[in-house]
Amino acid sequence: MIGLEALYRVQDLDTRIFDLREREEGHPLKAELEELGSREQELAGELQSLRGELEGWRKKLQSSEAEVQRMEEKIKREEDKLYGGKVNNPKELRGLQAEVRSLKRQKDDLETELLEGMEAQDELSGKVEGLRAELDALRAEMEGKRKVLENDLRGIREEIEGLERQKEELEADIDVDTLQLYRRLLESKHNLAVVKVEDGVCLGCRVELPGKEYDRFLKSETVFRCPNCGRILVK
Ligand SMILES: [Zn+2]
Questions:
Q1: Whether 152 and 191 share a structural domain
Q2: pLDDT value of residue 87
Q3: Model pTM?
Q4: d(CA 146, CA 154)
Q5: Ligand 1 geometric centre to CA of 201 (Å)
Q6: What is the predicted pLDDT for the residue at 85?
Q7: Domain range holding 81?
Q8: Which of 8, 67, 70, 120 has the fewest CB atoms within 10 Å, measured from its CB?
Q9: Could you tell me the distance, in angstroms and rounded to a whole number, from the CA of residue 26 to the centre of ligand 1?
Q10: What is the pLDDT of residues 68-91, one digit of tens each?
Q11: How many whole angstroms from 1 Cα to the centroid of ligand 1?
């Protein structure tokens, strides 16, 4: 038994399987996730560099604070000398006064710098927070899409498996040589190896069979191939 009818149904199943494989490979969420993944890397890199910058500010401010404290102590020491009564020489006292004034000015400048630094640090902190929130949202979006994709792909694979099982059953009714020819043709004929003939026209290549060939085809009980494209023809 040649099993042409079964072969035609196998072709139909294969066509559906090829379509499903294409859907699996070209699932739009794959490209979308890839794009989101690059954006994620971009944001993560930006966040890392901002965090580095923030850490730099933190260290800088820490050392400025220590410097302000050192100056305060120095001012206090000079003032103690100035008002402690141990120094009486007017020239020396004037010198001490000038020294204290100069130190206070330096301390003021440093404190102004410190304040500006703190503002910059706050601004940077805000940016880091914003970026982190953006990254979190992006990752959540990716996770959601990944789940949808996995679900879709699982569905497609299950459908393919079901069709493969049906195919196996049908293939048992087809003789080995015909099946081998069919598989060879599938590869060389863009996944379409078995086609119907409608009004004498091969539905594979859309070329009309010459009258004599068409007559032979109508009477044929065995594998009959299109004289033009070589596909297996069925009634
Ligand atoms: Zn043809």
A1: no
A2: 86
A3: 0.76
A4: 12
A5: 8
A6: 87
A7: 25-167
A8: 70
A9: 29
A10: 999 999 999 999 998 988 888 999
A11: 24
CA of 207 to the centre of ligand 1 (A): 6
pLDDT at position 1 over 70: no
What stretch of H or E contains 198?
A: strand 194-198
Instruction: Give 204 Cα–ligand 1 centroid separation in angstroms.
Output: 5
Task: Mention every residue, 6+ apart, whose C-beta is less than 8 A from residue 105.
Answer: none
For position 2, what pLDDT does the model report? 74
Please tell me whether residues 126 and 192 are part of one structural domain. no
Specify whether the CB–CB gap between 157 and 199 falls below 8 A.
no
Give 209 Cα–ligand 1 centroid separation in angstroms.
Answer: 8
Question: Could you tell me if 213 and 98 lie in one domain?
Answer: no
Ligand 1 centroid to Cα of residue 226, in Å, is 5
**Radius of gyration in angstroms for the set of CA atoms belonging to the chain, rounded to a whole number:** 42
Distance, CA of 73 to chain centre:
57
The rounded Å distance from CA 188 to ligand 1 centre is: 13
Mean pLDDT of 40-55: 97
Distance 232 CA to ligand 1 centre (A): 8
pLDDT digits (tens, 9 = 90+) for 110-164: 999 999 999 999 999 999 999 999 999 999 999 999 999 999 999 999 999 999 9
How far apart are the CA of 233 and the centre of ligand 1, in A? 8
CA 196 to centroid of ligand 1, rounded, Å: 9
- Written as six digits, the tokens of 141 are 């979006």
Q: pLDDT digits over 2-24, tens only?
A: 789 999 999 999 999 999 999 99
- Span from the CA of 134 to the centroid of ligand 1 (angstroms): 57
For residue 29, give the CATH number of its domain.
1.10.287.1490
